[in-house]
Amino acid sequence: MEQREPSDRADVCVVGAGPAGALVASRLASEGHDVVVLEAGPRFDFDSRQERMERAIRPGDGRDVWEMGGERDAYSANGERHYPLNISRVKGVGGSTLHWQGMVMRLHPTDFEGGHDTDDPAWPISYDDLRPYYAEAEQAMGVAGDADNPFAPSRETPYPMPGFPPSYSDSLFADACESLGIATHSVPNARNSETYDGRSQCVGYGTCQPVCPSGAKYDASVHARDAEAAGARIVDRAPVQRLETDGEGGVTAAVYATPDGTEHRQPAREFVLAAGGVEIPRLLLLSQSEQHPDGLANSSGVVGQYFMEHLYAGADGVLDQETRQNHVGFITSESHQFYDDPGQAVERADTGETVVESADESLSPIKLEFLNYAGPSPVEMALGGESWGDELLADLRAAYGTHIAMGGLVGQPPRKENRVTLDTSQTDDHGNPVPDIQWSLGPRVERSLRRANEIQRAILTELGAEIGGTIGPDATGPAYHHMGTTRMGTDPAESVVTPTLRTHDLANLSIASSSVFVTAGSLNPTLTIGALALKCADHVDERL
Asked: Does 276 fall in a domain?
């Protein structure tokens, strides 16, 4: 049995061993501080990844690949739309980077400026404030990319590794987009295009979601190991139940439970919450006391409010030619042309003919993705069909090999009514109220999804595809990017943390998470999470 007693002395107690918590722990331990990390989930043995990959590939197993679910992970979704929280969560050392896609982009300067719409307030920090931390996060994770995106913010140094070549179907999209005057470019990925940081080059298993068995895709267990090598202590299966305070503006201890149900108190000089955009507000609300009747760090009343997501837009079709649907496992090409100017018209490059009219209504940024796989799964067809032998082979050949599809993300503006609260009618395995995600889309998101679909259908039509399904406002789903529930700001009456990531109310409590995002943008958030985590660690180091 691992030692799960509290450490006698700790400079820093970090809650959560996902990308933010692992980076904070690694940075602070390497600076010589005594660090304890409390992680709710288990350690996953690296050697189990092949078995987990096989479990994911074979339908009907019934077991979650990363062991989510049950009373431990119970939640409610009592909002206008059901929010399927557990589909894309992992509790354990490494967190959700164990099964993430691995796309890592920097937010645009306009995301920090609040320039997309009057509903989007400005962040209290700028892109330039985060620029050096973006570069550090890219080095830490190991990012493969090419500087060919004309819409991306400027950078001073190249990516740590060269980017991945485009898939075959990307070349089909590129020709159609060129005809329509739409620029395509590569995608930066936190996976190794060559050996990096002691981890192997990507070997193309194609199961990146939910399992990379080779370790070529970055996950936060990398920095958890680095933190331990520098002297940090990681206690797994130790969910924090509440934070205790001294009544004088400081946190004194994190109270956590061990698998046998025993509760322990971990004292520290500084505390950093890094458990994600749902569990962080839940923990703060669970830490209610006489001194903090509305929950910890919640004098503003906005803890849990402004929950934001990225919504999916998509369209697919069939060509009369092979698209070589060899599932690479990750996206290699995108277009950010409609990010800062989502309402621009689409015009044919050679004639100037307008294919999609311009829009002057308020829209969110739009990110377009070119998918290298679409169509029915041959495995599911084989297992679910009634044909056998040559007949089955003919059915598979007829249904597979000519599909093509596009995806995209649209971000939500911050809205108070989208929030994480406590559902006192349901409890977890320790008797605590579960998180309740109250969520709806809002009109701007719906308009933006329809706009993305218009552009996607125009590109597929230019390809000569017979357009099939469309995923728009009525059928959309979340990207599982939990943002905004402990927002950053300079006004303690309107925000939870300062620009240094320290809470307004408590001098030794910081938050390193997408929960501090002021706006969502429409780009995958993990690189920004990593940059903010490194910034947070530097500020904690200064105070220590």
From this structure: yes
Q: Is the pLDDT of residue 1 over 50?
A: no
Token pair recorded at residue 327: 């599932």
Task: Decide: helix, strand or coil at residue 334.
Answer: strand
Any domain includes 4:
no
DSSP 55-84: HHHSTT--S-TT---SGGG--B--SSS---
CA 20/CA 483 separation, integer angstroms = 13
| Domain span including residue 352 | 12-53+67-543
Sequence letter at residue 313: A
Instruction: Supply the pLDDT for residue 395.
Output: 86
- Mean pLDDT, the chain, rounded, equals 94
Residue 273 belongs to domain with CATH number: 3.50.50.60
120: tokens are: 């989007």
User: What b/e readout covers 385-410, taking b as 16+ CB neighbours within 10 angstroms?
Assistant: eeeeeeeeeebbeebbbbbbbbbbbb
Per the structure, the count of domains in the chain is 1
List CB contacts of 501: < 8 A, sequence separation 6 or more: 488, 510, 511, 512, 516, 532, 535, 536, 539
Task: Answer yes or no: are the C-beta atoms of 218 and 21 closer than 8 Å.
Answer: no
Query: Taking residues 308-331, what's their average pLDDT?
Result: 88
Q: Residue 59 domain-assigned?
A: no
Burial of 116 (0-12, 13-18, 19+ CB in 10 A): buried
Average pLDDT over every residue of 150-156: 94
The tokens describing 376, both together, are 């029915």
Q: Distance between CA 420 and CA 295 in Å, rounded?
A: 13
In the prediction, which pLDDT does 59 show?
67
| Structure tokens, 515 | 């929960």
Q: Is residue 365 part of a domain?
A: yes
Cα atoms in the 13 Å half-sphere on the side-chain side of 163: 19
241 vs 55, which has greater pLDDT? 241
DSSP 8-state assignment for residue 191? B
